[in-house]
């Protein structure tokens, strides 16, 4: 083990972004999240009572397709997520012309600095880039574990020791491989060697461990090679690699099976529910805060369209649709829309044969057994008129009851005569 590696084990490694991304499990986990989030489209919705309507807007084009900058929509979101995990946050400048957003410009977090006030309650700051000062309202700011709303905390900053162990183990493995797997040991000489002999021996030994050919060292008479025993670290290298990989995945919040390509349906659900959804919510909040006009807030909102992300395999999906249609809380056209198929214009809700078909738009019921259509509006109007007549002329109910009683009484007196 060389001196630099020994110092790393004793004193630790000063981790940075470049070193962190050399750890396979960390790079795989973060790239998995960034790739997934970047592929999800952002849509603009309008609240309209109980309904949320999709609104066509140029801002969604900037977020999903063409940012107006050198990056496209996918690359733009991908870069923000990478800085979210590995830096102080994801930052993007919003280029406006009046109230209209013309373009979005991602800026690498290492190029961002701040000018802050000293008030810990009423915090205020400005963003500085290459000597220019900008108001934070003109920026999308995606911050992880922030305490001041100005800068976030990276995974590297929060987990220096754990990542240092994983990185040092990687360097240790590289050191072993660079020596061609040759056993470590020490040379023993029966007589004292001169400096020239020592230098020549060191050069030959270095050539042997350089792993650049089938090198051979011939020992002179009186010299012997004593093999050193393997350390516990060497003997458990593979086991340590697995353990370190699992620990790094825990840091990011990604099931290890997702990185290994052995993910089960349960692993995928955990990944989406506890990691992807959280990152998406942070991204949505940052976009809503920065890209909505003050007059739009409360009525409009940006949200990720996760329909494709949550889609299961076709067999389970179609079975779920069948249940929804059978129970009456899904319509055929709603299912076809989810599957990106042309809609048929069918506005009926399928009910049981004894219930018929309900048209919620026209408020009519078609009864299959009787082949009749009932207009619920007219039916309700008739009931209301009947109730109104009853309120205006309550004696009609009494008269009707008395007439019914007289008829019943006459029927009762005539019946015995008939029997006689």
TrEMBL record:
Pfam families: Phage_portal. Coiled coil: none annotated. It comes from the Bacteria. Residues 394-404 have a biased composition (Polar residues). Residues 383-420 are annotated as: Disordered. InterPro entries: Phage/GTA_portal, Portal_HK97. This is Phage portal protein.
């Amino acid at each position: 083990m060389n001196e630099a590696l020994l110092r790393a084990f004793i004193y630790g490694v000063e981790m940075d972004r470049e070193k962190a991304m050399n750890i396979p499990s960390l790079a795989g986990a973060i790239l998995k999240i960034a790739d997934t989030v970047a592929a999800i489209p952002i849509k603009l919705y309008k609240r309209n009572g109980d309904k949320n309507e999709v609104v066509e807007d140029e801002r969604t084009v900037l977020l999903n397709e063409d940012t107006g900058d050198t990056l496209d929509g996918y690359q733009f979101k991908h870069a923000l997520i990478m800085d979210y995990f590995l830096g102080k946050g994801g930052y993007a400048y919003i280029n406006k012309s009046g109230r209209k957003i013309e373009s979005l410009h991602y800026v690498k977090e290492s190029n961002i600095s701040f000018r802050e006030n000293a008030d810990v309650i009423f915090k205020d700051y400005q963003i500085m880039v290459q000597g220019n000062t900008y108001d934070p309202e003109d920026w999308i700011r995606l911050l992880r574990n922030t305490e001041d709303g100005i800068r976030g905390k990276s995974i590297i900053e929060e987990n220096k020791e754990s990542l240092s162990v994983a990185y040092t183990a990687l360097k240790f493995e590289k050191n072993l491989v660079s020596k061609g797997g040759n056993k470590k040991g020490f040379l023993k000489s029966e007589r004292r060697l001169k400096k020239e002999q020592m230098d020549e021996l060191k050069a030959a030994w270095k050539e042997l461990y350089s792993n650049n050919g089938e090198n051979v060292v011939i020992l002179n008479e009186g010299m012997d090679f004593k093999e050193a025993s393997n350390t516990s670290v060497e003997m458990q290298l593979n086991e340590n690699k697995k353990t370190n990989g699992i620990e790094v995945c825990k840091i990011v919040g990604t099931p290890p099976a997702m990185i290994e390509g052995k993910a089960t349906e349960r692993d995928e659900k955990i990944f989406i529910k506890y990691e992807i959804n959280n990152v998406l919510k942070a991204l949505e909040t940052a976009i809503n805060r920065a890209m909505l006009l003050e007059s739009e807030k409360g009525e409009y909102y940006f949200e990720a369209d996760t329909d494709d992300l949550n889609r299961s395999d076709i067999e389970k999906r179609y079975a779920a649709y069948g249940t929804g249609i059978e129970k009456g809380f899904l319509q055929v056209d709603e299912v076809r829309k989810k599957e990106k198929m042309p809609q048929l214009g069918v506005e009926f809700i399928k009910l049981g044969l004894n219930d018929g078909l309900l048209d919620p738009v026209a408020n009519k019921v078609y009864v299959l057994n009787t082949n009749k259509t009932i207009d619920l509006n007219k039916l309700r109007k008739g009931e209301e008129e009947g109730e109104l007549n009853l309120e205006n002329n309550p004696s009609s109910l009494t008269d009707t009851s008395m007439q019914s009683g007289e008829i019943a009484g006459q029927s009762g007196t005539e019946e015995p005569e008939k029997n006689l």
